[in-house]
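Please check this one:

***
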Amino acid sequence: MIVRDILAAKGREVATISPTASVAEAARILTERRIGALVVTGAGNRVVGIVSERDIVRILAARGAAALGLSLTEVMTRKVVSCVESDMISAIMERMTAGKFRHVPVLDGDRLAGIISIGDAVKLRLQEMETEQSALRDYIQTA
């Protein structure tokens, strides 16, 4: 199973935000869209960072309500772990677990091609296991 399988199932839409946007704006978008992370894009729609709910909670805990006025350049994760469509889901899940993050942008060269979350990966893996289980049951019943 590869990243392309997840994108085929969920789509390629990615919520993005400018690095100059405020923490408050990021929080509003995350809440409205009911998502856990935004990809921060700069000139030429290039990925320059990622901001998650966890990033926002951490800055709020550290700076209080004043953090809402900060720009994302002060809050976002700059070293973004990304993947390509041909990457194996199992390898991406291992990276997410080891790095303790939940969202991975999918790149096609420098172009943003999608995003996958740990929830997407788990959902697809469960579907795969159900299919395997059904095939085994069918095999046993016909044997």
Summary: The CA atoms of residues 126 and 132 lie 10 Å apart.
